[in-house]
Amino acid sequence: MPVASPPAAPPAAGLSEAEAARRLAGRPRARPRSSRSYTSIVVANVVTVFNAILLTLLGLTLIFGDPRDALFGGIVVANATIGIAQEVRAKRALDRLSALVVPRATVLRDGAPRVVGPDEVVVGDLVAIGPGDQLVADGTLRQAAGLRLDESILTGESAPVARGAGEPVRSGAFVVEGVGRLEVEAVGEQSYASRLAGHARTFRHPRSPLERALNRLLLLLVAGMVPLATLLVVTLALHHTSMADAVPKATAAMTSLVPEGLILLASLTFAVAAARMAGRGALAQQLNAIESLASVDVVCLDKTGTLTEGALSVVATVPAAEVEPAALEDALRRYAAATSTRNLTAAAIAERWPAPALTPAAEVPFASRRRWGAVVVDGGDGLLLGAPELLGGDALAPRAAAEAAAGRRVVAVAEAPAAALLDRPDEDAPPPGARTLGLAVLSERLRPSTAATVRFLLDEGVALRVLSGDAPATVGAIARDAGIPSSGPPLDGRALPEDPEALVRAVDAAGVVGRISPEGKLRVVEALRDAGRYVAMVGDGVNDVPALKASRLAIAQGSGAQMATSVADVVLVSGDFSTLPEMVREGRRILRNVQRVAKLFVTKTAFAAFLIVTIGTTATEYPFLPRHLTVASTFGVGLPGFFLALAPSAGRWRSESFLRDVARFAIPGGLAAGIAVLVSYLAAIKGLGLATEEGRTVATTVLLGTLLFLLVLLEGGDSARRRRGVEALVAAMAAGYALVLAVVPVRDFFALAAPTVPMAVLAALGLALGTGLARLGLRGVPGR
Question: How far apart are the first and last CA of the chain?
Fold first, then answer.
């Protein structure tokens, strides 16, 4: 029964400020944390499969080989250092912004409400809770009026649980509806309060499409490395290769198979994107969230606070027959002064008719599930406020429908005997015999940027679905004003099809659903998601939370309920819907660039696999030492990939065919580089009788030149400005390699030979062969 009377204990004034300060003194003050700890960042960047492979090869090289061949070990250090530094930097930025959305508590001190952080709540405090609040301490309810809690973080049960006065509750739960007062019994390390943000955010950790594609790619590469490594070891054993020769050969072959910088660059782009968006007022609580938005093809959003400005204003009142306007206004004034549910409607009424706060003798808090609320004040009749179809009566129905069709919010006011509220057979239905007093008409305006944002998303192929608890006609009118297309009348959320496929068809046709419950929003999001759509949900209220959790990408308004901001992947701290277009652009830039960079890294892997199968299984001297591959990888893949990952871009961005696109470029490119290197190296060693060091220099030059040519091919379909930038980058990388050859100590360190005319001729011929095979192999491949 959601009706409660004020209990006698504890004292309504709560603790005194002096007593609260005494209890707080000496207690450690917990600082708000983001979803990742420093330890998890270090572990994620250090403890990886590829680091384990490289560190093993590093150890073998340091023990049995030449320490100069251990230069690739710097890749492990650089990867971990840069990754950790970027993620720590992003974490600190997120922590600073998270202070805007951490849970807060309203405590009563000396009889006055005061908003404090979780670390300022002490044992014995009296905490007022309402819809959307997060419980920040353990304790016992001293008051409860229609209180329902979402305890899914604690129990895994998603259905809200009714809680009454005298029952214990634990921190980590959220208030779905109703109000109450909680006497605190455990705080800090003795409760769940210190882990609230972690619980809420780790409750859902969806992988972005790019992350899933990269994970599949890395698993395939690991699977391919096992047989190749086995083949190499067996070959070395059969040829009775000494350890001094086997270690450099095996190390050079295996390090080339590892796309060591790919994950680093992906993480780097995520972190940079998160930092960029933080400057625009979007807090990414998951680093992959910006990239994930690029794959969204359906955005489900609420109307109020998203399409429209958050505030409402009363524009008209419509008294019922035989009801004086003054009586209607007085009823609205008393209801707003007494209700504990401070939603937008109550706030607008209180702003229009201000009055001192009243303590209700009984209350049915407003809930979107019921669509009405009631208070009993001054020992008189109960006042009810809710949907016109429940409380407005037949006489006012045409006016209510007309106002709703014009895009305005309409609520009805009624009165009923207090006894009817205190003894109701059905707590979800309004009491029978309620007398209609009239209507209040409220207006909300579109945000100035709404139309432009909607137009951008539609132009980018993103469908919009409006899910609102308001009347279907009201929601439809706002959606039309915003430019959201519809091929049918708005749906009524109370009569949605049960079949998921039919539900998807109906929602797609209408585009707008009104009078939808939180459970209805959840059904729509789940149906769209299960139909293969990549669904984002934008919301700000408690009634949006189930749908936020079910979506692929949860976006919450920073001014919304704590529960909504805690479970969201992205929080629009500024509350501005117009941030979405920039997030989409940023996400698609990430997708395009990482897809292209991945092709370069996997091309090197395909090249390495070809050499292992050919020259690696013979007694012929291997064409590279590990340090040679370090030079070629640095100038041909690593540094270009770093710049390309952060550069502006245009073109394809979808990730559905990620592995196929990578393979269609990397395999022909890797084979072209492998054949060119193999032919030029054998021609140098067997044909011209050059020294091994000279042959390896030719092979390194051909490999690097072919990789740089593949880079130009990769960017060939992009804008002229980007092509010029890539050409300048290629020239800079070639100049860097030329500098390595020109500086004698550096050249000697890398075991490279000074260029001669025969070497230059062979390198030019090998490069011509490699570029020709690359052109032939990649002819007709899309996304070059």
Answer: 66
